UniProtKB/TrEMBL annotation:
Top-level taxon of origin: Bacteria
InterPro entries from the UniProt entry: AAA+_ATPase (IPR003593), ABC_transporter-like_ATP-bd (IPR003439), P-loop_NTPase (IPR027417)
Keyword entries, A-Z: ATP-binding, Nucleotide-binding, Transport
Membership in a protein family: Belongs to the ABC transporter superfamily.
Biased composition (Basic and acidic residues): 338-351
Organism: Anaerobutyricum hallii
Protein name: ABC transporter ATP-binding protein
Residues annotated as domain ABC transporter: 23-253
């Protein structure tokens, strides 16, 4: 019998293809009453990647992650984890996921070891020796081995976040889903947690959400940009910068006077716009926007050479991920980041257990998701 034509072969191919994608999200829709929070989002994440879900506040990142982890249901659409449907085969699918929600689900009156022991129970790790080795492993991975005896409430925010990561790692799931893992941390803690996530990426597929572009740029191999519930772009950070750019910036230093240099720039067909940045000791610094996406440095070289104006320095700069984000979402990065800062300060003021109204409703809903909209409608 020709193996290539057998049912078994087709099955093998199916398993291989499905396993290649650690997670597949197809046509995901989530409506809260009349409000469309997620509108037909599809994407697949291959094994071994660190993927960033990037978007401004309210874009639908947490909702998408909550559906991916099976925490809430979708209005329609499908999520498969390692080939298992999150709704139809939830036990197999959830075994593959370690989830860190935006507010880590910590029991503050437990010690780190007690809490992780409890998480082992929840994840079905029952043998004492297995539990011990599992706790040792995860505490070592997130560098909290010497904190095991400490009460969680006495830990700093950065260390609490590490405990949150440790609980996600119990059971060694191949897929980690991390919702805004650095929100509310101070700059040093942010650097540490980012480095930790990057190192975890060597052994796990990671999907993290963030509204911080520099974070996604620094950690992620691939970016999904979400705006108003829609996936508006996806690619590597480098490709996104290239693809959405119809112009480049050229930074130059030219020997001569600003009048001479402006004369060349004004008539150059390769330059759309320019700005004189500085003029000192007979050298002019210029920032120019190119008329096309092509690399026009050769052409500029010859134009300036013809006028006997030596170019001392010339650099080409592509559109940054910030510019791409602005173009796609129409939102200023600084604006988004300051809004997010205000929101996290608000959470901080309400105390650690003080979930925001939206979060509390989510936490309270237990499947019967009553929406703010519905509440308002009453
Ligand atoms: N239970 C709910 N009832 C009604 N609306 C909701 C509920 N949960 C979320 N939303 C709304 O859905 C939209 C998407 O929210 P989501 O939390 O997914 O956004 P996000 O991108 O994670 O933003 P953030 O970073 O602010 O959490 C928002 O407009 C939010 O107000």
């Amino acid at each position: 019998m020709n193996f290539l034509k057998t049912e078994r072969f087709r099955e093998c191919i199916k398993i291989r293809q499905e396993a290649y994608f650690m997670i597949e999200v197809k046509n995901l829709v989530k409506d809260y009453g009349k409000y469309h929070a997620v509108k037909d989002i599809s994407f697949s994440v291959p094994d071994g990647q660190i993927v960033g879900l990037l978007g401004p506040n309210g874009a639908g990142k947490s909702t998408t992650m909550n559906i991916m982890t099976g925490y809430i249901s979708a209005t329609s659409g499908e999520v498969k984890v390692g080939g298992y449907d999150i709704l139809e085969q939830p036990i197999q699918a959830k075994k593959l996921i370690g989830y860190l929600p935006e507010i880590p689900p910590l029991y503050e009156d437990m010690t780190v070891a007690e809490y992780l022991n409890f998480i082992c129970d929840l994840k079905g790790i029952r043998k004492k020796t297995e539990k011990e080795s599992s706790i040792d492993e995860v505490t070592e991975a997130v560098k909290i081995s010497d904190m095991k005896g400490r009460l969680i409430k006495n830990l700093s925010k950065g260390y609490k976040q590490r405990v949150g990561l440790a609980q996600a790692l119990i059971g060694n799931p191949p897929l980690l889903i991390l919702d805004e893992p650095t929100v509310g941390l101070d700059p040093n803690q942010i650097i540490e947690i980012r480095a930790l996530i990057k190192s975890l990426g060597q052994k796990h597929t990671i999907i993290l959400s963030s509204h911080i572009l520099s974070e996604v740029n620094a950690i992620c191999d691939y970016v999904l940009i979400i705006d108003k519930g829609t996936l508006v772009a996806e690619d590597t950070p480098e490709h996104l910068s290239e693809d959405f750019s119809d112009t480049d910036n050229i930074n130059m230093s030219v020997k001569g006077s600003s009048e001479q240099i402006e004369e060349v720039l004004k008539v150059s067909e390769y330059i759309r716009d320019y700005k004189i940045i500085d003029e000192k000791d007979g050298i002019v610094d210029v920032q120019a926007k190119t008329a096309t996406k092509e690399d026009i440095r050769d052409n500029l070289f010859f134009e300036f050479a013809e006028e006997k104006l030596p170019i001392i320095k010339m650099e080409r700069e592509s559109l940054s991920l910030e510019d791409v984000f602005l173009k796609l979402t129409g939102q200023d990065v600084e604006e988004v980041e300051s809004e997010a800062k205000k929101a996290s300060e608000q959470i901080e003021k309400q105390g650690h257990h003080g979930f925001s109204f939206k979060r509390k409703k989510k936490a309270d809903s237990k499947g019967t998701e009553q929406t703010e909209k519905e509440e308002e409608d009453k």
